[in-house]
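so i finally got all the pieces together for this one. its two components total, 730 residues if u count the protein bits. some of the lines might not be protein, just check the labels. i wanna see the whole assembly predicted at once instead of chain by chain like last time, that was a mess tbh
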Amino acid sequence: MANQKNQPSGKGCAVLVVHGGAGAINREKLTASRERQCLSTLEQALRAGFKVINDGGASLDAVVAAVKVLEDAPVFNAGKGSCMTRNGKIEMDAAVMEGTKLAAGAVASITCVKNPVTAARAVLQYCPHHVLLVGGGADAFARKIAEEAGLKIVDPSYFRTKNAEETLKRFLEMEKVLKKKGKRPSGLTTGAGQGDEDKSPAELMELEDLGDIEDFPGIVMPELDKTGKKYGTVGAVAVDRSGALAAATSTGGTVGKDPGRVGDSPIIGAGTFADNETCAVSATGTGEHFIRNVIGHEVSALIRYKGVSLQEAARQAIFVNLARTRGDGGIIAINRAGEFAMHYNTLGMYRGVVFADGSVATAIF
Amino acid sequence: MANQKNQPSGKGCAVLVVHGGAGAINREKLTASRERQCLSTLEQALRAGFKVINDGGASLDAVVAAVKVLEDAPVFNAGKGSCMTRNGKIEMDAAVMEGTKLAAGAVASITCVKNPVTAARAVLQYCPHHVLLVGGGADAFARKIAEEAGLKIVDPSYFRTKNAEETLKRFLEMEKVLKKKGKRPSGLTTGAGQGDEDKSPAELMELEDLGDIEDFPGIVMPELDKTGKKYGTVGAVAVDRSGALAAATSTGGTVGKDPGRVGDSPIIGAGTFADNETCAVSATGTGEHFIRNVIGHEVSALIRYKGVSLQEAARQAIFVNLARTRGDGGIIAINRAGEFAMHYNTLGMYRGVVFADGSVATAIF
């Protein structure tokens, strides 16, 4: 799989595909033990999802089962291990969608549910007239429906990890350095924001991890942890035996985000989308770019109206559409035929696939 | 215009199009004075937006100017006059997008800004790395940026109107009647929710307004106000002299919504979308269906990949795509050539257009 970057070979049709985030993952700095931890978590998620489908279950249940495993693992930025807002809080977003009835459920800025993806699923199931609940309303709904829907309510301290605390500290120090300089390094002006703005502290952190930032002599970098601890949004897409597609995505968002900031994960059509007639998609990356380019639905539209293959649609969405605003990230996609795609324009994407015979493949680079 | 339901004739190219919501507007119950009030507000909004463009301003400024007029008018469900949540609070959503850089800003569940569309605009302008802020975070951002961005902070009581209070009362009574009956009238099961669920109390209220609900003898309707006071989400799309497109949408949401519920208005690709290469779109209707079908981006994709006209794309989005989940509502759209479309599958949509020569046309049915 590592040799075939985007088209891993498989035995039979794919059943379920997962991702654990895309980004400037530094190959040299990623320790062997961390790499093993990430790959084994991806594999666990694939097996959890595969079991549901192999037992004759629905793709919607399979993607939720897979994402729960990724949320529970502190190595990924969702559920336990989520990134922190600039004021040190954890606010999570998640969505699910199934492609038969185009039914969807999503939560944003939720703080009290152990597995945010299960809260999104509960919105789909128990909240027939709403798709998206946010903030205090999402928390209140989750508490109310917890028993009936089997949601586990936890104290916000459950989600906190040392990694997330250190990453926020680095973010705030990076911001301070940039502020002291009075300006951002012009060499880094690559339109990271909505127009031609400079890179954000979070994006500079990625460059720093890669060693690139030392090339800008005007910037004195703080002495920060550089362990290659990169992690991201998680997601899954699946097809079940009835041919029904489903997608699920869950995230802690971006480090140092403003309180109330919502990324693409819970936005149907951006970070999460499923339609039996075309494909199921889950995205990861700089969420705002996925929102502005409506990437999830773009893959679907390319298949439906331009008549291209799933592979080609996913490739174009990342390398043509997302490129319009110079966004970074990746997507996974699957269709009813069990064809799948994994495309990203970053250095790596934690990802994996399980095939109809139960065989599993995982990769990062 | 009234005789040409969806393609009003105009003098020259269209510059700006507005809507004030689509729904089961009862022609017999709409009083002449209320009709005048709505049409004159639409005309004021058109003139406010036209002035910006005629003075050489940007389409983004024009749609914000137009939507502000509609938000300030208590006859529409946005800003002053917004619908209430089931617990009597007012939570508003708004978005803006411009089609040159695909830059966007949105707020959801905001409670303290007189013109939510200006808060969405402030996210675009002052929050370069975020697109969507929700809940308490959105309110906090608005208060912080108020002076710099010229946002007017008001007490939540400013938004309350007698109409909104009466409508919520009707909603809660309708819900009680349905609950007492133990079931919802099966004749009304038309898939209003995400699958084949029954209609919501809010949708039953629309049927009641139309007199249709009396046809279900099993249901004893409460004695409620039936004055045809229908109003909805507001929005605007525009093209300026440089050929730049922009869209803006603002809403109080649906009556009796759960706290934290977010509809399609602030979701880029669903209720609001703009891309100079295709079109600018603003939607109104049962928001969840517009989210699930990603209607705004669907219009754009139909033009880009299927090669159909703006008119045909807007028509298909409402009568083919939205119909997949049996959603109700309408959209307005415009392109760089000044072509425009107004399509809806409801009984009416408050709408209007201003042409390059400053002439204005408005309509409801």
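Chain A touches chain B through 58 residues (CB under 8 Å).
The mean pLDDT of chain A is 87.
anyway lmk what u think
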